[in-house]
Amino acid sequence: MEKIISIEDALKLTNVRIVDVRSEAEFAEGSIPGAVNIPLFNNEERAQVGTTYKQIGTEEAKYLGLEIAGPKLSALYNKISSLGQDKDIVLYCWRGGMRSKYTTSILNMLGLKAARIQGGYKAYRRLINRYLDKPSIPHKSIVLHGLTGVGKTLILKKLQHLGLPVLDLEGIARHRGSAYGKIGLPASPSQKDFEANIVEILSGAERKGIILVECESRRVGKLIVPPAVMDSMTKGYRILLYASMQKRVERIIEDYTSGPDSNIESLQYSTSLLKKSLGNKMVEELNQKIAEKRFTEVIPHLLVHYYDPLYKYPDEPSDNYNLSVNCDDLDRATATINEWIRLLPEYGKPVDNGGEDDANRGNSEECADEERVYF
Fold first, then answer.
1. From CA 76, how far away is CA 74, in angstroms rounded?
2. Is there a contact between 21 and 38 (Cβ–Cβ < 8 Å)?
3. What is the set of active-site residues?
4. Where is the segment annotated Disordered (predicted)?
5. Lateral strand order in the sheet of 210-214
6. Distance between CA atoms of 148 and 137, rounded to whole angstroms?
7. Total structural domains in the chain?
8. For residue range 87-96, what is the model confidence (pLDDT) as tens digits?
9. Given the DSSP bridges, would you call strands 223-224 and 219-220 parallel, antiparallel or unpaired?
10. pTM confidence score
11. Shortest CA distance to 226 belongs to which of 356, 127, 132?
């Protein structure tokens, strides 16, 4: 008998392989995190079946689908069985319909136990939307602020290594911001995958009661941060990170010039986008210095004349923040923040995903209306 499982129960499984049998294009648009794409129909075949369904009828579309899928069964079985005999196999398609039902039935007949997700990917999207369609997430947010290069992302990674829950929006988006944001990074995910990864992280952090995040604008590259997350950021605890110019320059050079030929062409292209702010002559001079790899001259100029005035963060301790930390020594800064967080009244108090309106209390002046640009 075919086994059908709800999306909620499927996500609770720990020893599982989730298989997406939709086409490559559907998978690229959005999928369940960790799923493996093994299409029953590729993009062209799916289009053929869809056209037949619309122009001729349901039965003819089914026959065409069987004709296309039949020769693939052996390869399909081998691919799915190779994912691990000791794992639970769970399949899904768009709505939990014919594609996942047919594939699951064939696998079961061939002795490979598999289940299909009721409602398919559409059910998963409903779950994501329910989580994010709230005024705010329930976690108490701890938001890192600071000038470019102080080490916000590095601190997040170190705190995560210490067991604290971190929502690294730039890491998920694979984008550091607008002008220089894509240099040296792989392609960004789709908006649906961006949201799915956010919910996966937030769900896992509920038992800790808090979430660490870097202050962001509504957009990270082309991706939109969900309003519930933005609201949480504007009302969370605020930590100011600051560092010396020397350390900031060193970190930026390490982040942005480690690619082939020091990413010179990408750096020059991104710098050219700043002509309106810096002027044509200055951009030409900076690009010439980039070509000569004189990064220790270029980066301080960009920081002093563009980025620091843009963000206006203090470069010293400030009473406007709950905590101010010198980040010249990243390990010491991480230890200070870690100790401070673990003394918070919200730390370690589990929350649910009800998204209470007042779950995050505090200053709401920053983040929401900032259009952040990162170097």
1. 5
2. yes
3. 93
4. 351-370
5. 166-167, 210-214, 140-146, 237-242, 323-326
6. 27
7. 2
8. 999 999 999 9
9. antiparallel
10. 0.90
11. 132
